[in-house]
Design goal:
By secondary structure, the protein is α+β, with helices and mostly antiparallel strands. The chain folds into two domains: 5-166; 177-286, Rieske Iron-sulfur Protein. It has nine helices and ten strands. Strands 1-10-9-4-3-2 form a six-stranded antiparallel sheet, with no helix packed on it. The longest helix has 29 residues, at 107-135. The relative contact order is 0.11.
Length: 289
């Protein structure tokens, strides 16, 4: 197998336990800074159906990349200065959404993500210096600091890509379920074995389900949380008119009737199964999109 030294060096961060005290401190800060659940849901991207961070990070990176291109040609000083300032203005929503996702990630991803955030902070600092230099008429120095800032932001982007695509933060854990479930109606359990109003576990083929009986009706979702794979059947039942299940790992909340996300950090819904009762036996089949 071909050696990838850069990737291997980044993977070492996943085992860097010396970062854990800083992770605990930053987690406490994030929790205190954003206590409102609706705000956290917005920053996670729950209303969008996918993480917000990859979308809002385009503003600072795009503005800074554009400034770097314009810096290569004379006569663009004012426009470049405006773009550098625009990028700095876009850092706050990008950082807020990223930190909210980071706070609900696994420990290995948090270690990598903390370094990603620190490198981003360094890149932003270089751009602040660049902006000050430009605004005081020192455009050549401003260009130099922008170049350093863009190189630093690019390195941070590599780390961010590792967190997203190698460590899976923000990726749905149930995306392949449709190809794993047998087609048609499948026997799950007997109705009498389910306690009314209590979460239970079932199986369709090799796919685990979380079940909820309400009288003669049974609701069924894939048991694996779409966020980071927590077992929903071990979670908490919430019923404020719409029966929901709360993941025991990171407190994502899903509607048992629809599988939709009620609260993050999850943004992808849970695959839902249709159910029927046949002579006291609960049968289920995957609901087609």
């Amino acid at each position: 197998m071909k050696s990838l030294p850069l990737l291997e060096s980044v993977q070492h961060l996943e085992k860097a336990s010396w970062l854990d005290p800083a992770i605990k401190t930053v987690n406490r800060i994030v929790k205190k800074a954003v206590p409102q659940r609706d705000v956290r849901d917005l920053l996670h991207g729950v209303p969008l159906g996918h993480p917000l961070h990859p979308a809002v990070v385009q503003l600072p990176l795009g503005a800074w990349a554009s400034a770097s291109i314009l810096d290569l040609f004379p006569g663009n000083e004012k426009t470049s200065t405006l773009l550098v300032g625009t990028g700095i203005a876009g850092v706050m929503p990008a950082a807020a959404s990223g930190l909210i996702d980071w706070s609900k990630a696994g420990r290995g991803a948090q270690r990598t993500g903390l370094v990603h955030a620190a490198v981003n902070a360094a890149a932003t600092s270089f751009y602040w210096v660049s902006l000050i230099q430009r605004c005081t008429g020192h455009h050549r120095a401003g260009k130099v600091f922008s170049a350093i800032g863009f190189a630093t932001a690019s390195a941070s982007g590599f780390l961010g890509g590792h967190v997203a695509y190698r460590q899976g933060v923000g990726m749905s854990r149930v995306i392949d379920i449709a190809g794993q479930v047998p087609s048609g109606w499948q026997r799950v359990t007997t109705l009498d074995s389910l306690s009314d109003g209590q979460l239970a576990k079932g199986l369709v083929g090799e796919t685990p389900l979380v079940l909820l009986r309400r009288g003669q009706t049974v609701h069924a979702l894939v048991d694996t949380c779409s966020h980071l794979g927590g077992p929903l059947n071990e979670g908490k039942m919430i019923d404020d008119g719409d029966p929901c299940v709360e993941c025991p790992w990171h407190k994502s909340v899903f509607s048992m009737r629809t599988g939709g996300v009620v609260h993050g950090p999850a943004t992808a819904p849970q695959p839902r199964f249709e159910t029927r009762i046949v002579e006291g036996t609960v049968e289920a089949r995957l609901q087609q999109p």
